[in-house]
């Protein structure tokens, strides 16, 4: 009881700011930016000797000049120092721009000597140790990402590399000497970049490499595998999961049938455990897409997938539970009736728990299944199995749920069941009470059991010497 | 076995076993947690022949159940019949060591390590070591990862042929295809090295160490740094230069900041492991580089080690090294751009004064302390203030007091209450070092201002602070300086402030003693029993209960009892409750 008298109304002063304001409010500062971890504070100013434009020299001199320009672009500038080397930074930017145009429109520029130089220039620029995240508690959902300071150059390098890979003259058979496993490994590490613009470019680059270098495909898949396993079981931190899953989505799409054991293992041992990660919401759409792709390829995988989801069903996080329900509906949309029958019992036991969740968004999301015509038809075909599983929860919520919208939805579902199978429905209604009583009795018996057990332990404690041989 | 109780007593056990199959996870979990009871009831024979096979079969359960199971089995030796039969526990633990979930696997490995010691040398070779080999050559990475933790427990107790096999398996895992396995192996490298014969440390471990330390993944390389400490400790001094140092030098300049961070973080251990000569020649320049690293994370980790590193330098050259090599870097860190770096430095920098002595401290360190006391980041200032005692011993705190005061005042009024809370906690320390005069003149008003802070935690800490001050300066001081101000607040229009008076009295009465309490505090408390606010009134009852033991019995009967009786008849239920409680505790009924 806090009886506030008139004498006690002076409010405590609130002029001072306390540390409880929301992060998003506190962090409304300017966007942060950072640069690779390789720069030791400034050395000497950088000098590059300006070269003529490619279009200004005769065609036969162009390949040579092209190489020279590539070599110049290997020079990397410190962008955290916004004042240093301004002229040379601008020169490199315009040179990169020129190179981008050149690889797009020119013909006959790609000599064999150019390949190592291109790969070298790209490597010098993009491969770098990513700096530590600015704050330990970086929350991708709430915080602004830290942007890459050297983006004005980096973007053009990526742009150039993609045009190079897509160029008609590009020959994978020559390039594979330089774009090798080590190159790909470093490329994959960059997916951890906090800058979404960079990850977007990386996605395209990796996609092109996967498409053109058949010899690297298995390696790329294996390394992605490792990244995911580490993410799930060790760090729970990797910025590029969504992008990698997006690439995998199209890779899975191209898998030949029957699926190899390796691919099935990837589904069950890597993709399904990805659901357990705390930051699931950041890549769930892409993950669900991959899962559905697999099931469309091979429907017999439905049972292990659904069992996997049920195993990892969120216990406390309602937001994740809603995501799981969404994904499950996507799966049910493509499920074959024969597969459905195999999994319906455990599946609807879970759905019946969701329907009676006190969190109305969870209950609502589960009840929406009954608006899905295909799911409805499956339920109808198997109402003799599903109705008994669902009935108790539905009946109870129709009387007790705090949220009127949920109660209304439940009434509709009950009505639908009644129309589907009225005999069974009446039977269940009639036995509802006695079933509850039986459950309560069982509950009581269990309690007594535990009590007895404690007695037993006590007794045993007294004569334990006699039982344990020494 | 349980014959004396008849079959009846086994009934609960039967149900319990049944519960292990229940649909509800929570019930399965309850049951698995009673596994030892079940086993005890079944007896050793049936536990071995029935329960364990059953458990081995049901390993496809929820991770939470598996975790409980993995833990239980580690304590099961007696329940299966003692060391002679301990190997019966291996099959279920082997399966548990291969599951996906790290927590379960780690627990299974922990239990396996535990029961390995209970195996006889023969059983170890017949049962345990084959299990390790199976895990080490498992298909999926999880079993190989688990194997890494088991080599060191069986190696010392097996024959030399088996030893050679174990070394080979460990070698394989160090170059495993999967980085997860290499990480697990790298993290156990130091532990494994410790149980190996020196010749194999030199031949096997060093090459593995070198390979792991130049792995393509920085997450593997950084674990090699950890192993470096154990390995360097095992080797004779004359081998360190050729076998360890090239790798360590390379790690200190690794292109990945994570590896350099690890070196900085382990620097004191490394320093001890390689000894004074190598420290002088190699580690000093390496440390300088880490203090100047381009990543703040690395600089902060190194800054944290400044004191320890300097302390452990060889005595003959300690001062020279610090003055010429370390101090210049430290000076730069004082004005670092990153506040974590500055704050890490501030938490250890004062410790240098004991190492460098009075003159050097005054000439070189004092300017740095003063600069840090004016730092914009409150954490830096706090860290300096919290370590004042180190300096006090060397040069006395007076040297600092001019700069100290503004810093304290600013922290005392910081907008963040946690900062205010932190500085309050150092008040008794400061008061002790600055002396009563300085305190009365400069700091007393701060301490009083905190009593009316708008955050409860601050008011509470301020109350507690007063008690400690009284313990330092004595009851007389309290009566002259603190008590009047505290009692004055009893008439404050804000009931929260009036309650603070009561809280202070609760805290101070014992330290102030009977006379002050009876003469000055009690009348105020009694008067407050007429307060309009119920919260104040029931706190009066609580206060009376608290200060009762300090008062004499006459006073209790004549003054306290009537007031409590009145409060016990209050219209507010809480006031009644606490009044009655006080009456019964003080035995006034």
Low-pLDDT runs of chain B: 1-6
Amino-to-carboxy terminus distance of chain B: 58 Å
Please tally the helical runs of chain B, counting DSSP H or I stretches of 4 or more residues.
Answer: 34
Structural class of chain A: mainly alpha
**Helix amount of chain A, in percent?**
55-70%
**Which ranges of chain A are low-confidence, i.e. pLDDT below 50, for 5 or more consecutive residues?**
1-31, 463-470
Shape of chain B: flat
- Fraction of residues in β-strands of chain A: under 5%
Protein name (chain B): TOG domain-containing protein
Keywords (chain B): Repeat
Family (chain B): Belongs to the phosphatase 2A regulatory subunit A family.
Pfam families (chain B): HEAT, PPP2R1A-like_HEAT, VPS15-like_hel
If you had to describe this structure to a student in words, what would you say it looks like?
- The complex is a heterodimer of chains A (470) and B (589).
- In chain A, 30% of the residues are buried.
- Helix content of chain A is 63%, strand content 1%.
- With 470 residues, chain A is mainly alpha-helical.
- Chain A starts with 22 loop residues before the first helix and ends with a helix.
- Chain A has helices spanning 23-26, 62-72, 86-105, 114-126, 151-166, 172-175, 181-190, 196-212, 217-235, 241-253, 261-271, 284-297, 302-311, 318-334, 337-355, 360-367, 373-381, 383-400, 404-420, 422-462, 464-467, and strands spanning 33-34, 147-148.
- The longest helix of chain A has 41 residues, at 422-462.
- Chain A is elongated.
- Chain B has 589 residues and is mainly α.
- In chain B, 76% of the residues lie in helices and 0% in strands.
- Chain B is built from 34 helices and no strands.
- Chain B has helices at 11-19, 25-33, 35-57, 63-73, 90-96, 102-116, 121-136, 141-148, 151-154, 160-174, 179-195, 198-213, 218-234, 237-243, 245-252, 257-265, 267-291, 296-304, 306-311, 318-334, 339-346, 352-373, 378-386, 388-395, 398-412, 417-434, 436-450, 456-473, 475-488, 495-512, 514-527, 534-547, 553-568, 573-585.
- Chains A and B meet through helix 9 and helix 20 of A and helix 1, helix 3 and helix 11 of B.
- Chain B: This is TOG domain-containing protein.
- Chain B: Pfam families: HEAT, PPP2R1A-like_HEAT, VPS15-like_hel.
- Chain B: Keywords: Repeat.
């Amino acid at each position: 009881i806090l009886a506030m008298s008139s004498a006690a109304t002076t409010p405590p002063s609130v002029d001072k700011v306390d540390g409880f304001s929301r992060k998003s409010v506190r962090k409304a500062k300017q966007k942060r930016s950072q640069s690779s971890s390789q720069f030791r504070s400034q050395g000497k100013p950088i000098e590059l000797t300006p070269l003529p434009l490619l279009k200004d020299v005769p065609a036969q001199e162009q390949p040579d000049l092209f190489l020279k320009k590539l070599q110049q672009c290997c020079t990397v500038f410190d962008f955290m120092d916004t004042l240093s080397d301004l002229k040379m930074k601008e020169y490199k930017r315009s040179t990169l721009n020129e190179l981008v145009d050149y690889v797009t429109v020119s013909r006959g520029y790609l000599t064999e000597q150019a390949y190592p130089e291109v790969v070298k220039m790209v490597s010098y620029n993009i491969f770098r140790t990513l700096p530590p995240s600015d704050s330990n508690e970086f929350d991708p959902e709430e915080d602004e990402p830290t942007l890459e300071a050297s983006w004005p150059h980096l973007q053009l390098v990526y742009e150039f590399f993609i045009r190079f890979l897509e160029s008609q003259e590009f020959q994978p058979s020559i390039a594979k000497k330089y774009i090798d496993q080590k190159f790909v490994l470093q490329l994959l590490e960059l997916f951890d970049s906090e800058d979404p613009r960079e990850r977007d470019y990386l996605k395209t680059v990796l996609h092109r490499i996967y498409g053109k270098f058949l010899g690297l495909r298995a390696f790329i898949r294996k390394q992605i595998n490792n990244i995911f396993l580490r993410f799930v079981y060790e760090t729970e931190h990797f910025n590029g999961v969504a992008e990698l899953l997006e690439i995998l989505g199209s890779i899975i799409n191209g898998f030949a049938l029957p699926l190899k054991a390796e691919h099935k293992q990837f589904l069950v041992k890597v993709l399904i455990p990805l659901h357990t990660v705390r930051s699931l919401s950041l890549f769930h759409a892409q993950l669900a897409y991959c899962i559905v792709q697999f099931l469309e390829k091979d429907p017999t995988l439905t049972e292990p997938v659904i069992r996997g989801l049920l195993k990892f069903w969120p216990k406390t996080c309602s937001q994740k539970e809603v995501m799981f329900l969404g994904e499950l509906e996507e799966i049910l949309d493509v499920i074959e009736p024969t597969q459905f029958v195999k999994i319906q019992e455990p599946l609807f036991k879970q759905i019946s728990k969701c329907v009676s969740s006190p969190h109305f968004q969870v209950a609502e999301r589960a009840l929406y299944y009954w608006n899905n015509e295909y799911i409805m038809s499956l339920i109808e075909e198997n109402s003799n199995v599903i109705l008994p599983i669902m009935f108790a929860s539905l009946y109870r919520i129709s009387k007790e749920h705090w949220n009127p919208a949920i109660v209304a939805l439940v009434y509709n579902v009950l009505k639908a069941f009644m129309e589907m199978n009225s005999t069974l429905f009446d039977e269940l209604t009639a036995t509802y009470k006695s079933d509850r009583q039986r459950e309560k009795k069982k509950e009581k018996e269990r309690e007594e059991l535990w009590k007895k057990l404690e007695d037993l332990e006590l007794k045993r404690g007294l004569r334990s010497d006699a039982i344990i041989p020494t | 076995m349980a014959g004396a109780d008849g079959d009846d007593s086994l009934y609960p056990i039967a149900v319990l076993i049944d519960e292990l199959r229940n649909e509800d996870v929570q019930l399965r979990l309850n049951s698995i947690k009673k596994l030892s009871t079940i086993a005890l009831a079944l007896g050793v024979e049936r536990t071995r022949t029935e329960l364990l096979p059953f458990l081995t079969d049901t390993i496809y359960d929820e991770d939470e159940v598996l975790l409980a199971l993995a833990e239980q089995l580690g304590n099961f030796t007696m329940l299966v019949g003692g060391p002679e039969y301990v190997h019966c526990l291996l099959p279920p633990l082997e399966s548990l060591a291969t599951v996906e979930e790290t927590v379960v696997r780690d627990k299974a490995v922990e239990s396996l390590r535990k029961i390995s010691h209970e195996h006889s040398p023969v059983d170890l070779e017949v049962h345990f070591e084959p299990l390790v080999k199976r895990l080490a050559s498992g298909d999926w990475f999880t079993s190989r990862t688990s194997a890494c933790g088991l080599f060191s427990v069986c190696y010392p107790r097996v024959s030399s042929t088996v030893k050679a096999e174990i070394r080979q398996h460990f070698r394989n895992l160090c170059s495993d295809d999967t980085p997860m396995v290499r990480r697990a192996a790298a993290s156990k490298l130091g532990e494994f090295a410790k149980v190996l014969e020196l010749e194999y440390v030199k031949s096997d471990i060093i090459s593995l160490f070198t390979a792991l330390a130049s792995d393509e993944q920085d997450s593997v390389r950084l674990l090699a740094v950890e192993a470096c400490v154990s390995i360097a400790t095992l080797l004779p001094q004359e081998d360190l230069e050729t076998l360890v140092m090239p790798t360590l030098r390379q790690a200190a300049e690794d292109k990945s900041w994570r590896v350099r961070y690890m070196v900085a973080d382990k620097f004191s251990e490394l320093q001890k492991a390689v000894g004074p000569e190598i420290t002088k020649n190699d580690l000093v320049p390496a440390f300088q580089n880490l203090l100047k690293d381009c990543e703040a994370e690395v600089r902060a980790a190194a800054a944290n080690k400044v004191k320890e590193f300097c302390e452990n330098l060889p005595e003959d050259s300690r001062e020279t090294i610090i003055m010429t090599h370390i101090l210049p870097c430290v000076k730069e860190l004082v004005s670092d751009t990153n506040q974590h770096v500055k704050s890490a430095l501030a938490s250890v920098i004062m410790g240098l004064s004991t190492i460098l002595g009075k003159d050097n401290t005054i000439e070189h360190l004092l300017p740095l302390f003063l600069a840090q006391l004016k730092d914009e980041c409150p954490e830096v200032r706090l860290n300096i203030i919290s370590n004042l005692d180190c300096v006090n011993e060397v040069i006395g705190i007076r040297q600092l007091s001019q700069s100290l005061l503004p810093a304290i005042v600013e922290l005392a009024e910081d907008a963040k209450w946690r900062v205010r809370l932190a500085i309050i906690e150092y008040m008794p320390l400061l008061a002790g070092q600055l002396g009563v005069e300085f305190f009365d003149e400069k700091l007393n008003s701060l301490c009083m201002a905190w009593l009316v802070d708008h955050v409860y935690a601050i008011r509470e800490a301020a109350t507690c602070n007063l008690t400690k001050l009284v313990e330092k300066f004595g009851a007389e001081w309290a009566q002259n300086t603190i008590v009047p101000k505290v009692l004055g607040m009893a008439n404050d229009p804000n009931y929260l402030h009036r309650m603070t008076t009561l809280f202070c009295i609760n805290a101070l009465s014992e330290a102030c003693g009977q006379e002050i309490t009876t003469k000055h505090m009690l009348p105020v408390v009694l008067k407050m029993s007429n307060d309009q606010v119920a919260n104040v009134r029931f706190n009066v009852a609580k206060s009376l209960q608290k200060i009762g033991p300090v008062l004499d019995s006459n006073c209790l009967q004549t003054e306290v009892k009537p007031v409590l009786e009145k409060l016990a008849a209050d219209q507010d239920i809480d006031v009644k409750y606490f009044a009655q409680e006080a009456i019964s505790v003080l035995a006034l009924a």
